[in-house]
Amino acid sequence: MAGNSYSQRDPDSFHILNKDKFVCRAIDNRMGGFMIAEVARLLKKNKKKLPFGLYITNSVQEEVGLRGAEMITKTIRPNVAIVTDVCHDTTTPMINKKTQGETAIGKGPVISYAPAVQNNLREMIIDVAEKNKIPFQRMASSRFTGTDTDAFAYSNGGVASALISLPLRYMHTTVEMVERNDVENVIKLIYNTLLNIKNKQSFSYFNK
Ligand SMILES: [Zn+2]
Question: How many angstroms separate the alpha carbon of residue 145 from the centre of ligand 1?
Fold first, then answer.
């Protein structure tokens, strides 16, 4: 077949399905790396000066025990950590919505409620989403988020942490799929959240 048939060149390459779905292996979590790099690019392009130091890190070994995040949080000693990862589109076959909750691609970034998530930071992210008309979904985790958030939150005596996830279909297969709008909205949400954080901002539950 003529044209730009990806399958003839490399069945393993990135491709775009129906104009708005990105399909590839290991989108979990190369897309995370892309999204945080885009946040950095936007800050630079729009000449934003943040009133605090910002580290953007793409951690290794998340899949085998959050090891990269454990190392980098000790090195950086952050005051706040905004983490992104992918989460399941639970409308995918073989995932039980009754136990996993309902999150789907195309409906926006997924904001987590979990022990590792600091409530005031999460509420600030929700405010930012609402003010900027960024659609979002919610997810609840009981013990672990299963993401680098857990490594940051419990390090250095406690770090205010939050998790903004990108919904993804067919996780850990060669045909992982995300939606373009969700990717753009995760970037927008992290970017606008950063612009909203003040220097030495306290997220404490006790001195509001
Ligand atoms: Zn994974």
Answer: 12
